Amino acid sequence: MEAEKGQQKYDLEERTFQFARRIRQFVIQIQKTLSNYEDSKQLIRASGSVGANYIEANESLGDRDFLLHVKISRKEAKECHYWLRLLDLGRDPELEPERSALLNEATELMRIFGAIIRNRSA
Length: 122
Fold this sequence. Notes:
This protein has helices at residues 2-29, 34-58, 63-86, 96-121. It is mainly α. The protein has a single domain (2-121), classed as 23S rRNA-intervening sequence (de novo design (two linked rop proteins)), CATH 1.20.1440. Helix 1 runs antiparallel to helix 2 (34-58), helix 1 packs antiparallel against helix 4 (96-121) and helix 2 (34-58) packs antiparallel against helix 3. It starts with a helix and ends with a helix.
């Protein structure tokens, strides 16, 4: 059981890492407007924070610390969703499927972190 828990932790750490990498690859492709530049900076920060806070949760000093960092991860995933929606793809409609996939992943991560919070709080 312990190895299974460790594997689940690693999988979510890897998943959040891959999410942040995909965000960065996506941002490189969008048009360079002032608003996209500013929104992209926020999106990149939030996407990295999702995984970084989950890693912190796994190294927590106790249940309260764990829950705090998981709640921050959930909040940052929600923020990613917001910034993704704000990006203007304008002349690049072919990027819309990737944005949609990233929006779905942000939603999935919010749900996963929400379930972790509910299960640990119960």
